[in-house]
Structure formats: structure tokens, C-alpha cells
Amino acid sequence: MSRIRPSLSRLTVRSRGVRGVLGALAAALGASIVIRPTASLGVLAVLIGLGCVVTGVLELAAARDPQGFARSRMAMVALWVAGGIVVLVAPGLTVRAIAVAVGVGLLINGALQVVSGCSGAISRDARVASVLLGLAWIGFGALALAWPDITLIVVGIAFGARLIIGGIVTLWHAIRPPEPAPTSPDTASAATHPWRRTVAAAVALAVAVAAGTVSALIRQGSPVVDVFYAPPRDVPAQAGQLIRFEPFGRGVPEGAQAWRILYTTTDGDGDPAVASGLVVTPRDGAGEWPVINWLHGTTGFAEQCAPSLLPEPFTAGALMVLPQVIEHGWALVATDYLGLGTAGPHPYLIGVPSAQAGLDAVRAARQVSEARLGAKTVTWGHSQGGGAALWTGSLAAEYAPDVPLSGVAAMAPASDPTTLMENLGNVKGGSVFASYAVAGYTAWYPDVRGSDYIRPGAEGITRQLAGRCLSEPAMLASVLVVLGLSADPDIFARSPLEGAFGVRLQQNTPPPTVTAPLLIAQGAADSIVPRHGQDAFVTGLCDAGQQVDYRVYAGADHMPLVEPGSALIPELFAWTTARFGGKPVAKGCVHTSR
């Protein structure tokens, strides 16, 4: 008997050493996932696969522990190991598939652990710890399944935390001094310090609850479409008709009054459609306010992304100078475009319906008697709205002769969708804008099919990104996901510049038929709308005989170009004042650098 005991002791030490290594490996692996949740999909698959296998081995070690709950944990060993192998070897695995594998594993693991805690075959403290840990794993699993578009981050939080906590607990049990043999059940309970396990389980549950709370808060930050945007049963056939309006107060500067409007416009086929927008005027004065027809920059593609629904309705679309507009005694009419606020699809980077929606908004706003709008109108637009402004100048004389334009100012305009799409691959987070373009073009043009262009592994992410607004709290996580995918192939399996997509992009380059005085402002350091593309577009306008005042601002990036401190802003107001005053512009092309 004396010879047997040393052998058992050596086996126990060796087992404890193996378990210590496993615990340290699990904690390190979990930390790697948490620190780099936006690693490329291939790297993430390796980390998650290895993590699943290690988790299975940890479950096996726990099942062999006399204090473990062998029956339930042994049921998880095969599941974790098999799932890890699938994640490691399956070709073309998507982020969503990884989330499902991890989420389901955590849910089952948690459920079995709760069942074990309720079995009654262990001490009360151990039961409490088991139930708490089980609830934590269930919470992490539900979290991983709840966010299909940002699962890279969720998996990093949920599964990485699971590995860290499990690894630390295993490591602690491996390195702590051996407990003396108990002489009675009471001393056994005191010797094992069960409170440590309970505290660890409580911490895990607290992390899960905190993550779930943050998730709920993020979801609550998403805008909601209300009944104001629902069209009537009978929509007037004539474009530019006011359907309804009501006072609006969010983001309106002091000394101004505002309304949101619902009105008729025209879709891409010439059929009646409904759009929404905002009208802002000075509160005091005689009225007959000159109108700034504002065409906003990108806010999103989904219905809830209308500026009139967002917490910051004006700055969200890059109008940073509304107070100055009011101080100048001007009114603002800002369309949401089709498909934002009202039922979609939204014609993202599609020129004709976007321009028509802006012109019809001015027509409808004139019918708000309290607004007292004048007849003079100057169109402003930035980025997406800058391209729409160019289209507005090209179409206004024919489509809306009752809205004569005194000028068109296009700031960092998306004048050439082809060049813009080509450049998005060089922009951090450019896949967000690409997803909007894919959603818009596939919805508006039957010959453009997403399956012809989007690689299979990116279809889910592209679709989910298109459903988020740029200003939503959840979009930050989505952008981090896109940044993490930068090490993977592009979301496109085929270039969008080819085939039907490429043809449609070219068709949405504004023609050189702007009849009003035209100002194009471009930042020399613009990372989204590159200067070389704008230069080429302006050269084409000049070659076609189009009048244009082209101004390039040194050092200005895409958004800083239109911020209050930009050198453009005082020049824009001076130029617009001259247009409302009827001052003539120089003929031909004028190209200056600021």
C-alpha cells in the first residue's frame, strides 16, 4: 500500500500540471480573442476553433475532477471538440456560421451547467456557483446570436470571456496547494473555500449582464419610423403636393421654426411616390425667405435613416451651418429622399429620383403657409447630396420649371459613382458605403444582382450593414467589423465596375446640362471622394462647355470641408448671397486653389 500512494501522488501532480497548462492556454487564447475581436475572418476562425477544442478539453478535465459534475460536462466534451474541428477545417465559413456555432455551444453548455447545479448531488455553494456560471454562459450565447452583423465583436466578448474565466478557474485549481483530507463533512466544506468558485461565477454573470445591458441600450439608440411617414390610401398623382405637415423642434437653432413634411414626388419609373423632409425658417420677419434646397450627405440606406428621424437631423447629413443660414434670413428645405422615412427602396447614388425628391420638397414646402417661402432657390449638397445637387441643376429646368434655381453648390460631390466605388476599397470602413450602393442598385435595377458581385462569405455582413444608419450606436461596432475584414478579400467577388453594375454606375454620372450658376468645392485631402476623380469630372464639364466655378481647398478632408471652421464656409455664404442678389458669374470654367 505504501508503494501505491506515491504513484497516485505523482499521477495527481502530473494531472494538475496538465490542467494548469490547459488553463493558462485557455486564458491566453481568450485574451487574444478579446483584444483582437476584429481580426480577419480567417484568423478569427482559427482562434475560435482552437478555443472550442480547448474548451472541450477543459470540460473533460473538470469531469475527471472529483468536485466536477462529470455527467453534464462529459456531454459537452464531444460537442466542443467537434464544433472546434468544424470551424477549423470548414472552407468558406462565414461570420454568421461562427456565431451560430459559438452561440449554440454556449447556450447548451450553460443549460447543462444549470441542470447540474440543480441536481442536488453537490454542496449548496457548489450548486450556486454552477447555476451562476450556467446563466452567464447562456447570456453570452444569446448575445452572440442576437447580433448577426457584428458577431466578430460579440464573439470576442462572449467566447473570449468564457475562455478567460474558464481558464483562470482551471489554472487556480491546478496551482493551489492540495487540500488536506477532510475528517468530517463540515471540515470538508470549510477546506475547499467554495466562496472562490461562487465569486468567480458571480463575476462571469455580472459581465454577461453588463454586455446584455449595453446591447439593449445600443438597440434602443436605433431610430424608429412613426405613423407620420405612412402614406394615405390615395396618393395625389401630381408631384410636389403636400400631404401633411407638423411642427418639428429637434436640432432647430434659436430664432427659427421648423416643420416636417410628407409630400408627393416621382419614382424612377415616373410613377407617383411619397417622400418626407424638413422645412426651417427664421421665426421673426416679413417672410418671403430665399430658400436653400439642401440635399444631405449619406445617412444610411434603411427606412429609419431619414435625417428627420435622427437625433441630429441636420448635422447627420453634413449640414453644420444651419444657424448661419437662419442668421442670413434664409429658409431651408431638406428632403429625406425616397426610401428614407417612407417605404423604400432608397435610390442611393442614383441621380434622377434623388434630384426630383429635392425639387418636389421645395414645391411642397411652399404650401406650408406659416413658412412664407420666397421664390428664389439655391441648391446645396454634400457628398451623396452633392451628386444629387448636380443632377438637380441638370434636371430643374425641364422637371420643375416652377422652381427656377439661382445657383447650385455641390460640395465634395459624388459626381462620378464609378470613381467613388473604385476608391472605397482604399477607405477604412468603405465597405459600409459599398453596402449601401449594392443595396440601392440591386433594388432599383433588375439587371444588377448582388449574387453576381458579392462573395458568398460577405453576403450576410453586406446585408446587415445596409440595414444600419451611420449615426446609430450599433454602426460603430459594424464599422469595427468592416475594419477587421480588411485582411480578408474584398466584399466583392467581382468588381462593381464591370457588367450591369458598372453600366448603371456610369449612367448616374450627372450630365453637363446645369442651367444655373455652378460652384463645385473639393477638399484636396478628401479620402472618400478623391480629388483626381473630381478633377476629371470638372474637366469633362469644361470640355462640354459647362460653366463651373471649381474651388479646391488645401488640406481639407471629406467632412472638414463643410465644418464651420472651413475656408469654404464664408465663401459659400458670399457666393450664395451673390446668387440670391442676381449677380452674374464668370462664363466658362474657373479653377482656383485655396
Q: What's the helical proportion of residues?
A: 40-55%
Q: Any idea what the shape is?
A: elongated
Number of strands: 10
Q: Tell me the structural class.
A: alpha/beta
Largest sheet: 10 strands, mixed
Mean pLDDT: 83
Features:
single chain; 594 residues; alpha/beta; 10-stranded mixed sheet; 18 helices; 50% helix; elongated; disordered N terminus
Gist?
Helix content is about 50%, strand content about 10%.
Structure description:
With 594 residues, the chain is an alpha/beta fold. Helices cover 50% and strands 12% of the residues. The protein contains 18 helices and ten strands. Strands 1-2-3-5-4-6-7-8-9-10 form a ten-stranded mixed beta sheet, with helices on both faces. Strand 4, helix 9 (322-327) and strand 5 form a beta-alpha-beta unit. The protein is elongated, with a radius of gyration of 31 Å.
What's the structural blueprint in terms of helices and strands?
Blueprint: H1 4-35, H2 41-64, H3 70-89, H4 95-117, H5 124-146, H6 151-175, H7 185-191, H8 194-220, E1 242-247, E2 256-266, E3 272-282, E4 289-295, H9 322-327, E5 331-335, H10 351-365, E6 373-382, H11 384-399, E7 405-411, H12 417-424, H13 430-444, H14 459-466, H15 473-484, H16 499-507, E8 518-523, H17 531-543, E9 548-553, H18 568-580, E10 589-593
Parallel strand pairs: 4-5, 4-6, 6-7, 7-8, 8-9, 9-10
Antiparallel strand pairs: 1-2, 2-3, 3-5
Helix pairs in contact: 1-2, 1-6, 2-3, 2-6, 3-4, 4-5, 4-6, 5-6, 5-8, 6-8, 10-11, 13-14
